[in-house]
Amino acid sequence: MPTTRHDLAAAFAATGRNHPYLAFTLNSLCNLDCVFCKPRCMPDYGHKDRPLTITDYAAIAAEAGTWKIRKAHCSGGEPTLRADILDVIAGLADGLGSGAAIGMTSHGNLRRGLSVEKLRDAGLTYLNLSLHSLDPERSATIMGGGDPRTTLSTLDDALSLGLQVKINCVLQRTYLDDAFAVAELARELPVAVRLIELQNIGPAQALFDTEFISEADVRDRLHEWFAGAGEVSRDQLGVRSPGQYFRPDGWAGSIGFISNSSCATCSDANRIKITPTGVARPCILHNRDIPLKSHLADDTLDDAFAHLFQAMLDRNTNDAWQGFHYVDYDLRWDRMERPEGAPVLPLLPVLTTGTTQSSCTRASAGEQ
Length: 368
Ligand code: SF4
Description:
Blueprint: H1 5-14, E1 21-25, H2 54-66, E2 71-75, H3 85-96, E3 101-106, H4 116-122, E4 126-130, H5 136-143, H6 148-160, E5 164-170, H7 176-183, E6 192-196, H8 205-211, H9 215-221, H10 223-226, E7 230-232, H11 234-237, E8 244-247, E9 254-258, E10 271-274, E11 279-281, E12 290-291, H12 292-298, H13 301-314
Parallel strand pairs: 1-2, 1-10, 2-3, 3-4, 4-5, 5-6, 6-9
Antiparallel strand pairs: 7-8, 8-9, 10-11, 11-12
Helix pairs in contact: 1-13, 2-3, 12-13
């Protein structure tokens, strides 16, 4: 079993998976209310009292940099609603060092006083915009507000400032033509449109049976676009998560699929998910928690990263991991206590990384 930082990183590389990256959930709040997300229905589980600080984000990123991690992604909720978003971005950019990819998922309806230029100046290098229809009324029905024209203006700003842009568009049967119109933006614009299968989790469970449509079905309908389309490498697009991207002949941009419902890509997973209060998980939906706050307090972040790398390595060999997903849709935002009796994996073994002995103990999001 690998025991050092170098060995663990090398063992991960040997799996052929893309190197891990940091995927921060900065908040659970949003001023919109998408039908498959519904943040307004959810109680805010007190994370405002215990969020990671700017210094914490910078320290986590600095430690990650020593593990050769070169990307940090911020999502929410709506991350731009954080008053300190520019400082968070700057802390991550400083921590990971020059040349790192610092990105964000946003609905693009930026609050007054915030601009893409300010985000870029803070260190943002790419922007993923959520856009599910170009029609203002239909978009508002899906997203509970917002204006796709504002999102498109944010998109233009991002491209003109040299940011890489991806568009996240969730596929729903009722809004399939809307999704195709969004995808067609890539005909003229150098953007990667990601068509995302609906996942049967959280509020989307109520829609799943009627609205789910698979990647295969969508590809069939778009066969004219994909006939002869060349595959675009994820490296070229700055994409490190699973998925395949194609550029139809003559198009400026590309279309990809994120198909976690019909084609689980768990064995490729490389996201270190970190909740607003600093609970790290080696998978977005997994229940193996590593509370980074205690590691920050003890100056043992290296042990936490050793655990995370080992946990990601384990997933292909550990029976307890195989196919087991405790669907903690709300836990990832610290919005709820882990339900009593919910199954959990055994503790990770303590690793010796040449530094301090680990003080890592697993705790539920509500206990730290
Ligand atoms: S914009 Fe994002 S965070 Fe806000 S409701 Fe929609 S999916 Fe949820």
